[in-house]
């Protein structure tokens, strides 16, 4: 007996939903089997007893909710091809059944249409999402279907985050505890000095990710913005007025905007033949404001949830909406800090330099962004006119992709990035500062030189891992080779100690 598609995969094939990504694909076969496919998705074979009673859309939707990963984007497309009368007849067979009620609730939630029922769903209230399988939001009771709506957002914008093994492992890590351990290991003076330096490093890195070199005044404005992270109510921070002020403060004055964009935006590059290569086409402009309103609702609906996931949903949600022509990436990274500070992972005045880590690991950061953009580019259709004007020609087909993103990968990535940043970037900076003071004193005893020159020498020595670079020696013509050798020995002794 050959394996037969069931659930999401059956619906995808029968309804012609070719460009929708499924993270869990199910089959009915002679024996149970579970394996990971080449694209990272899970393929699972269930025995014959799991087969739906009949090959109807409703039966396969029920199987989807029982065993497959829930994609609101995909389910919305399925409901778009579902006959309402047939669906109502299916629900009427078990009006108090948990999956009948979930299907009815999701149909109305995703389509905005109210089913004309001749029965009243009953039973105790049940959670829409299983806490063991998904990260969930705060509950809103729906009395019509007797459902606890614990989705992460609202109809205008609602991400999904699955509790994969990698995600569960990251959530089990006490990141705040790791920061507290560092604070116990180093003196408050060292910790404060490191923090002040890291604000500037974070700002510089955030601009460098965009291949920009900001003017000193723009640097200082961004540093001031970072210092304000977590101090205002989230709804104020995420308001159009406030985000526009941020955008105006951090971009070149020629690219400031008075409010959210009213034009179609995209991210791309021009090749050597002067042809445009499109990496990401942003949501159409008429979706931007409602999606941003939905983003505010996500923050409210997930209050008290895991700080890292909240930061990922708000920050990546923002950058995928892309409400401005320029500055989206820097605001996206500011929002990470705002959420981490707001939720108490990073206390006021402490910064976790995620941008610096991203800059040093751009392949991973790009992968997190492309995990969302690449599937979209296989599905979206658009025309490009004169002057680079882009028009999306299938907005209804991609609206669900924008509004209901699966941010599991991005949430896992951010959790891993924050952990690496605490363990390495923050830890290494503290370690260096503590050794720096001792090194500076020893070198000053060796040669009594001006403070500015001594600092410059230490930077060159440290950047080259304790060996003073020959090409820099011309800057210190007064220093002998024996003295350079002595400096290197002192450096090695100080930095070799635990």
Structure notes:
The chain is an alpha+beta fold and 498 residues long. It has three domains: 82 residues, no CATH class; 250 residues, Fic-like fold (Orthogonal Bundle); 50 residues. Helices cover 53% and strands 8% of the residues. It contains 20 helices and eleven strands. The strands form four sheets. A four-stranded mixed sheet has the order 1-2-4-3. A hairpin with a 5-residue loop joins strand 8 and strand 9. Helix 13 runs antiparallel to helix 14. The longest helix is centred in the C-terminal third of the chain and has 39 residues. The radius of gyration is 27 Å and the shape is elongated. The mean pLDDT is 93.
Which features would summarize this protein structure in a list?
498 residues, alpha+beta, 3 domains, three-stranded mixed sheet, 20 helices
How much helix, percentage-wise, in residues? 40-55%
Write down the overall mean pLDDT: 93
Give the strand line-up of the largest sheet.
Answer: 1-2-4-3
CATH level-3 fold name of the largest domain = Fic-like fold
Strand fraction: 5-15%
First and last CA, distance = 63 Å
Rough outline: elongated
Number of domains: 3
The assigned CATH architecture of the largest domain is Orthogonal Bundle
CA radius of gyration? 27 Å
Care to count the β-strands? 11
Query: CATH homologous superfamily of the largest domain - what is it?
Result: Fido-like domain
Q: How can the largest sheet be summarized? A: 4 strands, mixed
Instruction: Give the helix tally.
Output: 20
Instruction: Please identify the structural class as seen in this structure.
Output: alpha+beta
